[in-house]
Amino acid sequence: MKNYRKKNNKSEIKRLEIKRLGVSLREPIYRLVAISVICYSLFTIHHSLFAAVMSGGDYKITRLQTGGVGSGFYEKDGVKLYHSFSQSSTVGAYETADIKLFSGYLIIGGYHLQVLGITPSANKLGVSISTFAKVYFDGEVNTASIPNAVNIVAIRDRTGRKISQAVPISAQYDATEGSIKITPQEFLSNNNQFNVLISTALTEAIDDLPLETTVQWKFTTILAPQMDNVTVSDFNENLKVEIPGYAFSDYYYTEISSSPLSSPIKVAPEYIRIATAKAVSNDIANEILGYYEFVPKDEKDEIISTKPAKQLGIALPFSQKQKLSPGLQSQSAMLRLRKNINLYRLNEEKKLWVRLPGVSVDTDNNLIKGAIPYFGTFAMFVDPSYYLGDVYAYPVPFSPNENPNHKTITFTNLATKCTIKVFTISGELVNEFEETDGDGEYTWTDVKNKDGESLASGVYLYLIESKQDHKVGKLMIIK
Q: Which listed CATH number (2.40.240.10, 2.30.42.10, 2.40.160.10, 2.60.40.3080) goes with 392-477?
């Protein structure tokens, strides 16, 4: 681990007390002279410390800003002032009062501790169960504040279940490198996720000012091959892989990407683009619901190329735009939609998507679940639908003069691609449309014939045709 320790100018600042100045610092000219003298003194102590001089003007601060009457920490124009003061009258929490400085310190840059580095790194996978955590700071730490400020908590177990279990630890401060080493008192559990937290109860050693902000990060330990394991994505609770015991022979972990096109682990994004273009041109993929990449790695962070000895279970969330129907939807249409959503694995050598059998689709929770023989890159497609058995049009009858809501006629439960033709009862073509966007609906917006003329009252027929099916129905227009 790189030593993040930097030379700490703050520890070299000699506190310069302002002992009951004989002038009120409310008066700009006297304050400017006094502060200039102080800053010049600091400049001579350590020339790199001097950053700015406070400008003129009255200082008005609220009780909340100072933490109460009597003392506080205040910043103006890049210069921070730790001070005690008196005020002319009692003020409310959010009211302002003139401040007369009696004594305090002038501090360039501030004394709040900041974290410079951590180990293990945030969201690190495959961490050894004998690991420790280390935090590097930019200043000296008050060691008395460490016990109440540092902890490690197990937040997920090897089954993917959320937990909250404190880990017994010991913490040791190294003043030379400016770090706190946090060591679990026992080995951590395999395939558990842990959260390391350093709270603002941690303070610096000079003025006991707190850590600038709470710092926390997560890491996950290596998976033991003899155990049944579940890996859950940090980015989506529903994205997970189930790995039975002895699927792998050595210790391992699984890295998951939900955006392999932009953030691949191993796959070449161009292979995904080429394979998808082939699927679309061959009428395989009507809608792309998402891509995922799963890559197993060993203790050395090297990719495991051997095939698992057992089938793996995956759950993949998806978002999809295809409408099931307006209002109530038929059960058969729901079953059809489930049938048309399929899971594919990328054959990288041939740059083709190969459909995987035996998957189930949960349309209520937008999840695809199934068993896979090995890891890799996967795509979820809505395959084209040609079925037209559930098509209907509404409203029927269409009565625009009687019902102001009757402005359009919608054909729903359509195939992915189809043509819609409307005829008079005598067989004359009135108008025709193409459904191509795959959303399952087409809206006849103006309800006019192909010449732009309004339709007369009467009964009309519609014929809808897809690549493998057709449907005939009736419309009624009343004016």
A: 2.60.40.3080
- Dump pLDDT digits (tens) for 3-61: 333 333 333 333 333 322 223 333 333 333 344 333 333 333 332 222 233 333 344 44
Element (H, E) at 75: strand 71-76
List C-alpha distances in Å: 135 to 168, 169, 176, 195: 17, 14, 13, 13
> DSSP string of 337-349?
HHHHEEEEEEETT
E strands, 77-214, where? 79-87, 96-108, 115-119, 124-127, 133-137, 150-156, 162-167, 169-174, 179-184, 193-198
Residue 192: strand, helix, or coil: coil
What are the structure tokens assigned to 366, written together? 């937008």
**339 Cβ partners below 8 Å, 6+ apart?**
none
**CA atoms of 411 and 419, how far apart (whole Å):** 11
Distance CA 193, CA 223 (A): 11
**Taking the model in full, what pTM does it have?**
0.65
The CATH number of the structural domain formed by 115-221 is 2.60.40.1220
Domains 229-382 and 392-477 share a fold: no
- φ, ψ for residue 296 (rounded to 5)? -85, 140
Tens of pLDDT, residues 188-201 = 999 999 999 999 99
